Amino acid sequence: MATTLAPLRTFAVDFDDDAKDLLLQFTRNDPFAVGLCTAYLSEHPDCILDLAEEFERGFDSAVSSLVERVLTMLLSDSPPVLYATCVLLSQCDEPFSEKILDGIWKGMPWDATYPSSITSPLSSLARVSFVKSDASGIFLDEHIKRSILWKLSEADKQSACVSISNYFAQSKLPDEEKIPKAHHYLKKAGLIKEALQLAIAYSTAFVKEEKFDAARRLISSELSDMSNFDKELRVFLLHQLSVIDFNLQRFDDAITSIREVVEELSHGNNLAGKLAAQSQLANLYAMQGNTDAARREFESVLSEHEKHHNLSGIVSICAQLGMMAFEQKNLPIAVERFYIAKTLSANLTQNEQKICQLNWEYLQNELGASRLQELLLLVKPKADAYIQRVNAR
User: Which of 108, 185, 335, 389 is deepest in the core (most CB within 10 A)?
Assistant: First the structure.
């Protein structure tokens, strides 16, 4: 059977003028200290001189001590509505509007005795400066927040965070606004698996919708706990972040992530994955303008393909190196690499042959047939020796 809700504290004190002057004097007219004393004196009206002495001995220590006593008062109600409001606000990592807080409040697992709106408890706490508001929303005073956080059980923290997460997940905000917030509070609630599933599902969707900033928030948040994941999952998240950063033109960040992918895969048995990531890294270096680093990575990949006689990989990387050389005006190397790719592709699929033929035609259109033939005669002996060596393996 539900208990009757105790009236909310009004923190009303009937000060005479002398008492009011004394209060303002020893609290240094600080709004929070005044509110704290007012809250305490609402139940201990004869203690103003004791408070004055306490504040004279040390302002900060008096405030800290009084916070604990007032929080004990808030816990004494049945149910402790004001304390519960402080618990909720203590888990909010940013100020929220009264409308948002009210929506979260209604989703909390209260019993039937709790009020249906947060307006009344907020007003009571605002009256003594425990909660404050500005243009960005309502927040809990840091003095109270510190003490609340120190007292809270993990179950209370999780309950509040899950309610905040659920509110955003079910809100009518656009997905790119609400999902990162819902994800953040799922993580804060300790629901690591659920948060990861949400991040992977929505980051993939956001990338498809080109909402890269929202995708980055989710993946970056997960990667901050990277030590919690096995290697396969770390590689997936890092690769996803690299793709996102590439689309945001954050090339330095994209390179950092894909380098970590290459490093992770270098210590396992997934050679194909490692070479694919290394090729992506080389392409990113090339886009960044770091052609020396790009060439080193491409040549390292080529060496692995040669070692494992992967003809398709050799052709692909030779074409990449040929294009890089052409862009750098190193025409003999460009012709040599494109010629190798075109010749070796004869043993590959029709699609690969067509790509190599188109590359060769592009080169011919750019250089002219006679110039291309002149350069080919120059590099053909070396190129044919390489082709013979590859085919002999």
Answer: 335
Identify the pLDDT of residue 225: 80
Torsion of CA 384, 388, 390, 393, to 10 degrees: -170
Name the DSSP class of 172: S
Residue 5's pLDDT band (cuts 50, 70, 90): low
- Is residue 364 classed exposed, middle or buried when 0-12, 13-18 and 19+ CB atoms within 10 A define those classes? middle
Instruction: Characterize 199-228 residue by residue with b for buried, 16 or more Cβ atoms within 10 angstroms of its Cβ, and e for exposed.
Output: bbebbeebbeeebbebbbbbbbbbbeeeee
Q: For residue 197, is pLDDT > 60? A: yes
Distance CA 235, CA 195 (A): 18
Q: Which of 126, 79, 76, 78 is nearest to 101 (CA)?
A: 126
Give the H/E segment covering residue 99: helix 98-107
Q: Pick from 221, 218, 223: which is nearest to 175 by CA?
A: 218
Using alpha carbons, list the distances in angstroms from residue 334 to 280, 340, 359, 383.
Answer: 20, 10, 11, 11
Measure Cα distances from 331 to 60, 156, 232, 292 in Å.
Answer: 76, 69, 41, 17
